[in-house]
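User: tokens in, sequence out, please.
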């Protein structure tokens, strides 16, 4: 038991490194992202942890997050969409994650995230926004 306690203490002390991300949002987005952070452990791909808040009085059936990875010079390196997140109650907030895999992320890279689409419960209509231009502008502002 002592060995397990020691191992857990060391693991928690050497926990995942946190890295903030930039968040962009379309003006009419029904979902707002907050507390977006990248968690990177010693092994495995980085994970985006975020809070999503439904800004409407209607339950959302699903919504989609997109992450843009820019090199330090502002060049778009990769774009990844999360599988649709399910059910976000009216005016509610929930936390979720997105694994950023399939491409290396360098320490100097800029990561920008946002909501690209959402659908209300009992509706076939989707809200959509192309947020890539906003992501590019945010990455340019972040350059040293």
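Assistant: Sequence out:
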């Amino acid at each position: 038991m002592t060995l397990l306690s020691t191992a857990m203490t060391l693991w928690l002390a050497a926990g995942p490194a946190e890295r903030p991300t930039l968040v962009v949002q379309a003006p009419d987005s029904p979902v707002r992202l907050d507390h977006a952070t990248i968690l990177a452990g010693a092994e495995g791909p980085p994970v985006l942890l975020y809070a999503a808040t439904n800004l409407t009085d209607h339950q959302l059936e699903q919504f989609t997050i997109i992450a843009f990875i820019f090199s330090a010079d502002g060049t778009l390196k990769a774009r990844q969409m999360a599988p649709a997140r399910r059910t976000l109650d009216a005016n509610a907030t929930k936390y979720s994650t997105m694994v950023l895999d399939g491409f290396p992320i360098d320490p100097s890279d800029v990561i920008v995230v946002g909501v690209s689409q959402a659908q209300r419960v009992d509706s076939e209509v989707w809200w959509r926004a192309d947020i890539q231009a906003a992501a590019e502008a945010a990455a340019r502002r972040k350059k040293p």
